[in-house]
Amino acid sequence: DETFRFAVIGDAEPGRFWFSRALFNTPGIFWKLLARADRSGSDFIFQLGDMVSRGTVANFWAFTRGLFSAGPKTPYLTALGNHDRHKPHGVTNDRLYRATFGSPDYSFTRGGWRFVVVDSSAGRRTKAQLEWLAGQLDPAVPTVIFTHIPPAPLSEWTDWGSLKGAGGFKEGSEAFMSLMSANKVARVYMGHIHGLGVLERGGVKYVLTGGGGSPLYPGPVKQRLHHWLSVEAGPEGLVETVHTADGSTFPLR
Hints:
single chain, alpha/beta
């Protein structure tokens, strides 16, 4: 019956190209946000993927050196992002991520809450993934989902002009959202799109929190800011607070 706290940080990679880093990013911002989350008294920190700009040995080695240098005392958990694959777009290999962090589909329980991590980095949900996910869910158990790419039907975020759903995953998206609603999932946290937002579909609250340090590109999301979330979980549900890069805070609505 006690409450506990966890932290959520979105995309971390600083941008693949020099112009995106120069125009839309602040150097080192992810490590500053991570340090603040580490001091927040959270039980764990969850990072929503895209730790590196491309899944190469050099990039993963540099990132893991950064983690060791930062020395967070709080357990650090992660999802697989599309940039963490060998190539950022399409179904490319994820061997380096798996070698560093393990399986991209996993779950755990803490304080009466179920936490489920589902890989969406290839821009799809496979039938096998959906079957596994269905076995992890129980409407009687409060559940949080972590994934990288939002489902395409969240059009306020995923539509880019005439490119409908381009910012989300399409294959398996309807089935995924139906599972969320049928099992009364409390929250779905996602990154990939570099901003902050909340949408409700089918009784489920979808939270976009992709501002962990990646470039804040212009796009359909109205709130574009570097930030992390602190989340208090307890018998009454979840209470989220947004922590911005300048140190200010406000409740997530």
